[in-house]
Structure formats: structure tokens, C-alpha cells
Specification:
about 230 residues, alpha/beta, Cobalt-precorrin-4 Transmethylase, domain 1, Methyltransferase, Cobalt-precorrin-4 Transmethylase, Domain 2, five-stranded mixed sheet, 10 strands
């Protein structure tokens, strides 16, 4: 039976790969991915040699048509993004929607997600947490969106590159430096690190790191809601 599997893959440590993910990748007739070079590393790790197809943000509509044609033949397709769960700040949503509209089963294979991983260690007491992912690199848009997120009163999670992390915290500290924050850097990887404290404290911490050496690694950031217990108890 033709099935499109949307697969969560490790965000760094290959030991986080699930048995079910490995089995699906081994049995798939086609592996579509955001970046075939990244997914090939995973397939090589598993000793899998399967036909691959690129399906990234810039060609997702076109690639979805090709994938649906394969599904129409009754074949199985597995889709992965570079790391983590597809469609969370990664491609995959367009493909999943179009495949379902074409009448095919679209099945999730749960796996790692930087969003869920960060929340699990943040100590977040917020009932509602918004997922924003990457903000605009344009300063004005980034600052306006941050203000909107802070004004909701809810907790939220952002992703950011090492090149803009200090600029992000400059804006956050200026808008509301008292909120509790938990930052994960290089999660599950060799240089994994977590910073916890107020936005102002973490900004100062990052500034000191930047003065000593170049800031490296991808960042995930949890910011508490306005009424979080952390504002009282942290």
C-alpha cells in the first residue's frame, strides 16, 4: 500500500535514532529529503542504499508532484528534513498536505524535535507555549515580532543561528529582560550546553562568551510567559 512516512530524525546524536525509523527507511522505495547530502550520511550509517529525491523549501511544490507520482504507483516514500521533525521550521508541510489531498496515507514516525527536547529540560511551567522557530533576519521585523510574542503573555520557543543570537538577546533584553529563559546550544551533540536565567542574565553570559571566543552552534530558546511561576520562584 502506498504510504508517505514523515520521519523525525536525530538532531545531532545518531544514538537517538529509533528502531522504527531505521526499519521504515530500510523498507522505503524512495527516500525524499530536505538535503540529500545530510540524509545520505544517515542512510550510510544504517547501511541503506535507496533511491533519493531532494524536497526542500525552494522546490517543495515541484518535488511533491514527483513524490505523489511514486505513491500513485503503490510505492512507499519516506521523508526526512535535515534534523528533527519535518514541518517544524523545516519543509514537509506542503508535501504532507498534497499527498493527503491526492488520497494517500500520510503517517508520522515520531522522533527527535529540538522544540520538545528544550521544553523537557526548561522546567517550563507555562500551560501554553507558542512555537515560532526562526524569526526574520531583518532587525525591524524581528523586533516587532518579539514584542508581539512577549505581549501574548505566553511562553514561546525560538530557533536562532550563532550569527544572530546576540542581536536576538539585545532585542529581548531591551523589551523585557526579566523573563525567565532557557537556552539550548548544540543539543545532543558533543558540545551540548544549557543556559538558564533571566533574559538579561543570559544576554550577559552570551556576551562574555563572545568576548572570549567565537560563538558556535545552533540555538533553541525558551522564553517564559508573563505569568510564569519562574518570575516568582526562580
Amino acid at each position: 500500500m502506498a504510504v508517505l512516512y514523515i520521519i523525525g530524525t536525530p538532531i545531532g546524536n545518531l544514538g537517538d535514532l529509533t528502531f522504527r525509523t531505521a526499519e521504515i527507511l530500510k523498507s522505503a522505495d524512495l527516500v525524499a529529503s530536505e538535503d540529500t547530502r545530510q540524509t545520505l550520511k544517515l542512510l550510510n550509517h544504517l547501511g541503506i542504499k535507496t533511491k533519493m529525491l531532494s524536497c526542500r523549501a525552494h522546490n517543495e511544490n515541484l518535488a511533491a508532484g514527483k513524490i505523489i507520482a511514486v505513491l500513485d504507483e503503490g510505492k512507499t516514500v519516506a521523508y526526512t528534513s535535515d534534523a528533527g521533525t519535518p514541518a517544524l521550521s523545516d519543509p514537509g508541510a506542503v508535501l504532507a498536505r498534497k499527498a493527503a489531498q491526492a488520497g494517500h496515507d500520510v503517517i508520522p514516525i515520531p522522533g527527535p524535535s529540538a522544540f520538545a527536547a528544550l521544553l523537557s529540560v526548561s522546567g517550563a511551567a507555562d500551560k501554553t507555549v507558542l512555537f515560532e522557530g526562526f524569526l526574520s533576519p531583518k532587525p525591524g521585523r524581528r523586533r516587532r515580532r518579539l514584542k508581539e510574542l512577549l505581549d501574548t503573555g505566553f511562553g514561546f520557543v525560538l530557533y536562532e543561528s550563532p550569527f544572530r543570537i546576540l542581536k536576538l538577546f539585545d532585542d529581548l533584553a531591551d523589551l523585557d529582560g526579566k523573563r525567565y529563559c532557557c537556552v539550548g546550544r548544540e543539543m545532543t551533540k558533543l558540545h551540548e550546553e544549557y543556559l538558564r536565567g533571566s533574559i538579561a542574565e543570559i544576554r550577559a553570559n552570551l556576551q562574555k562568551k563572545a568576548e572570549k571566543s567565537k560563538i558556535c552552534g545552533e540555538f533553541s530558546i525558551f522564553v517564559s510567559g508573563k505569568l510564569s511561576d519562574y518570575l516568582v520562584n526562580y
